[in-house]
From TrEMBL:
It holds the Pfam family BPD_transp_2. The keyword Calcium does not apply. The keyword Transmembrane helix applies. Keywords: Cell membrane, Membrane, Transmembrane, Transmembrane helix. It is a multi-pass membrane protein. The chain crosses the membrane at residues 21-41, 53-72, 102-124, 131-150, 170-188, 217-236, 298-316. CDD domains: TM_PBP1_transp_AraH_like (cd06579). It comes from the Bacteria. It is found in: Cell membrane. Its main location: membrane. This is ABC transporter permease. It comes from Streptomyces albiaxialis.
């Protein structure tokens, strides 16, 4: 019996092959297109100062996106990451008087506590991740504003060095983000926890039948997401030299979800693409910088991100149908 050819359009293009290519490499192509556009049409784009600025600004997005990738890989989501960043900056302002390390510890504990609340609601009570984390998205920023009602200066030599210093020309925030990328990739690919996370995301009922510690893994996933968001808030506070729980982390959940989904991690769970998440975060930062440098208002950045994530989800759905 003769083989049936794959469906093609009128131009002879294999739609399935194009969809697969976009899913696997579309984010890298998007980064390349933005780089070429900016090199050609954006003044001073190739300057060392600009690359430094982009590296510093992308670091919090990337760090938060790593935690979001873990949550999405477990077939969940974490909408509270922006509020956890706000809570982190409030805790830094409250505890910086005891030294930057104590402030960092307070921020990390706050992020871990937020993740523990999210994970417990999801794992033990059975609340859907989008609902549980939405509740903390609202309540977390409210708590941050109770702790620090308005913008406060954060003056500390160690914080200033962390936010604006560098090692061999590479900013400290970028180096920290890179280290966290390597750690997260190792955890996902080489540890029992990572394999259990992916198994749970692929099929939670099957994971339970296999005897996997589903509740414990889910709690750890959201604790990791909370800690990473808190670290991002700490780094952003160090860079700004100010604590602003009103605006810090605002809409960060949108940027993180976009970076993860565009990077190829499916919303249906069962897989985490760390390399794609890195490229997705870079894409979001380049897109934002491009629009700003060409005098377009910030609202266009949000519209562009919404369009990108819808296209990425549509591509993932098309692939899932085949």
């Amino acid at each position: 019996m003769a083989e049936v050819a794959a469906p093609r359009g009128r131009t002879g293009v294999d739609r399935a092959a194009v969809t697969r290519w976009l899913q696997a490499y579309g984010v890298y192509a998007g980064v390349a297109v933005l780089l070429v556009f900016n090199i050609a049409f954006t003044e001073h784009f190739l300057s060392a100062a600009n690359f430094r600025t982009q590296a510093v600004q992308v670091a919090p997005i990337l760090i938060v996106a790593l935690g979001m990738a873990l949550a999405i890989g477990s077939e969940g989501i974490d909408l509270s990451v922006g509020s956890v960043m706000a809570l982190s900056t409030s805790l830094v302002a409250l505890y910086l008087g005891y030294g930057p390390w104590i402030a960092l510890l307070a921020a990390v504990i706050g992020g871990a506590a937020a993740g523990l609340v999210n994970g417990s609601l999801i794992a033990y009570i059975g609340i859907q991740p989008i609902v549980a984390t939405l509740a903390l998205m609202v309540g977390g920023r409210g708590l941050a504003l109770v702790l620090v009602p308005q913008l406060e200066d954060v003056r500390d030599d160690g914080m200033r060095t962390l936010g604006s210093g560098d090692l061999l020309g590479v900013p400290y925030p970028a180096l920290i983000a890179l280290a966290l990328v390597l750690v997260t990739a190792f955890v996902v690919r080489r540890t029992t926890f990572g394999r259990q996370l992916l198994a749970i995301g692929d099929s939670r009922p099957a994971a339970r039948l296999a005897g996997l510690p589903v509740r414990r893994v889910l709690i750890l996933v959201y604790v990791c997401s909370g800690v990473l968001a808190a670290l991002a808030g700490f780094l952003a506070t160090a860079r700004l030299q100010a604590s602003d729980p009103t605006s810090l982390g605002n809409l960060m959940e949108l940027s993180a979800i976009t970076a993860v989904v565009v990077g190829g991690t499916p919303l249906s769970g069962g897989r985490v693409r760390i390399g794609g998440t890195v490229a997705g975060a870079v894409l979001i930062q380049l897109l934002t910088a491009t629009l700003i440098k060409h005098d377009l208002p910030p609202s266009w950045t949000q519209i562009a991100q919404a369009v990108v994530i819808v296209l990425a989800v549509c591509a993932a759905r098309e692939r899932g149908k085949r």
